[in-house]
Amino acid sequence: MKRRTFLAGLAAVPVAGCGLSGNTASNSAANGQVTGEITFQTWSLKPKYTDYVNGVVDAFQKQHQGTTVKWVDQPADGYLAKVMADASAGSLPDVINVPPDLSFPLAKAGQLVNLDESLKDAKPEYLENAWQAFEIPGKGGCYGFPWYLNTGPIFYNKALFQQAGLDPNKPPANFKELEEQALKLAEKKIAMLGQTPSIADFGLYGVKVFENDKFTFNEPKGVEFVESYKRMYDAGALIPEALTQNYTGAGAKFMAQQTALNPGSAYDLGKFKTDAPSLYANIGITKPITNTGSANMFLHGVSVPKSSKNQATALAFGRFVTNAENQVKFAKLASIFPSTSKGGDDPYFTTEDGSDEARVRVAAAKQLKTAVNYTPVQFSDQMREALLQQLADAMLGKKSPKQALDDAVNECNRLLK
Amino acid sequence: MTHRPYTPWLFLLPGLAVCIMFTIFPFLNMIVLAFTDASALGSGQFTGVDNFVRMAQDPKFWLAARNSLLYMVCVVPPLVLLPLLIAMLAQKIVPGIGIFRTAFFTPVIASAVVVGLIWTWLLDSRGLVNNVVEALGGTRIGFLTDSTLLLVSSMVVTVWRGLGYYMVIYLAALANVPKDLHEAAMVDGAGPVRRFWSVTVPSLRPTMVLVAALSAVNGFRVFSEIYLLSGGSGGPGGASTTMVMLIQLTGRGLTGEVGYASALSFVLFVILLGLLLITLKLNRREDQL
């Protein structure tokens, strides 16, 4: 599995996770003395953010005399394997950086501390939607401090729009316009999109993705959505690689100006500027395409495993790393956004200075207030693969959209058990 | 001179410990897990032969087995013959032959990821090969987006990567072919082609069997080529998935079905063992004739 953090890429990382019932995280441990040594594991923050993390660690150690935080950074490649090996061996670090979709299986296996039980006063410090992203609806319990968030605009290539006779200042504002414009671009042999829809796209379209403990994206609206993609695919509005590509691949195709539109983040804008200046000169930025009024949100968090021998210190550190002050500092460095309830009030996220970066940043910060993590925490890697494969069969005409979605939902529900 | 009876074991101990820890124990564990519903975070319950029953009814398994078999059948002949021909050229002592040998051996030492990326760039729908095809008036070919062509493209990469490795094996074997046999054949009037079939090939037959066995096992176990060229997806709709890729897709991550993936691995092991035993038996039978 190739996974990118927001810091290394953007918002393709489906994240969300939390919740589960019956956790017996010990309050006594949480209320114990904040002292001793803990290990803090992050996901690909070195070397770019070394000074920042060291600063946070030093500040915590100063605030809590007698504590020692050992920071370990793991590269993005192999992060999952590392967490898996540690979890299997029962030797997870005291504080780990995990997105919700990683925290979910760990919580399900009873390996993470339930913050709703251990730190009952922590919840109001965070954005409600960010906290919820670490919960499983209806089951209660939260298994990670929300850390950094991201959402993003849609980027489009104005030059390609112009080549197809489309108004470069009127990008698609909804899914209907997306199809109409994609078909017009296809007439000029220009592809609009670089990948088939992800599970989050179904959510953005307004499809009920997960209800009553099972996947439901094969509902009529889901079928309608796939039928729209099928029409676009048949017309050549999706590049051939779209059938096998993940977010990273689609981003690369957009950078190479082989597709006309791609979702992105504030981070990407900087990347276009340095790595694809000819694209940057023609870049258009617009709001996310959504039928629900809410944009998609991606987030990372930090969790405390139950196996931690120093839970009180680990919980205190997890809360410290994700407090408003530290998150705002981090967000200013890394084109991400704070998940704390007050972090977004900083002028940095509310005031434009005329630059594209500031415009994207302010718009994204505004979006985040109502953004939703459309990827259910239960949506695993195997389910992602099943959806991709079934959508490919639908696009190639091997199956009807309805049949493909039925098969994808059946497989996802089987894997859920 | 005598020694204590356990002395050889002391010398063997380090290697044996590594072998037990990293080969034998995981192998035995895989067999145990194949009969459970284990996940990445739990050892699971004993489920008898449920995993194997599921496998028999799983179209993905049959597709992956078919693709792996097809892969093996297609890559073995070129990997047995082409390196032999190249080795015969490479054994000539002529100026600059070192460069020639190095060129063929380079893919062997190159990282699989780098090789995969280079070929992806070459074969992409907007890659170099397709640009040339289009410039010549043709239409772009879906080397990486058509499930059949994706398999063929992967086979080409496998053969390309294997040429140098098997060439070295043949070079060693060719050095052992008695020169007097060639000289005797020449005296009898045999030309280069006749000498190749009547002297070189019979002398190299054990080596060719070895190369066939190794390339068959590697072909059936193919992973990196197909994984990299398909971007980890197994091709459109997963139609180009091979056995090892299916195992990886099934068992990976915190939500992986480790029990079922182990059962798939066990079946793969049995198939490969069967292949090797058949090869060995055929070789012995020919030796006896």
Brief digest:
The complex is a heterodimer of chains A (417) and B (289). Chain A has 417 residues and is α+β, with helices and mostly antiparallel strands.
Explain this structure to me?
The complex is a heterodimer of chains A (417) and B (289). Chain A has 18 helices and eleven strands. Chain A has 417 residues and is α+β, with helices and mostly antiparallel strands. Chain A has two domains: 27-151 and 297-368, D-Maltodextrin-Binding Protein, domain 2, CATH 3.40.190; 154-294 and 379-416, D-Maltodextrin-Binding Protein, domain 2, CATH 3.40.190.10. The model of chain A is unreliable at 1-28 (pLDDT under 50). With 289 residues, chain B is mainly α. The A-B interface holds A 1-2, 80, 83-84, 87-88, 102, 105-106, 108-109, 111, 239-241, 243-246, 249, 256, 258, 380-382, 385, 388-390, 392-393, 395-396, 398, 415 and B 40-42, 124-126, 142, 144-145, 230-238, 249-250, 252-257.
- CATH architecture annotation of the largest domain in chain A: 3-Layer(aba) Sandwich
Stretches with pLDDT under 50, minimum 5 residues of chain B: none
The CATH class assignment of chain B is Mainly Alpha
Question: What can be said about the biggest beta sheet of chain A?
Answer: 6 strands, mixed
**How many domains of chain B?**
1
Low-confidence stretches of chain A: 1-28
How many domain modules of chain A? 2
Could you say what the CATH architecture of chain B is?
Orthogonal Bundle
- Largest interface, counted by CB within 8 Å of the partner chain's CB: A-B, 36 and 26 residues
What's the CATH topology label of the largest domain in chain A? Answer: D-Maltodextrin-Binding Protein, domain 2
The overall strand count of chain A is 11
Our estimate of the beta-strand percent of chain B is under 5%
Helix content of chain A: 40-55%
User: What is the approximate shape of chain B?
Assistant: globular
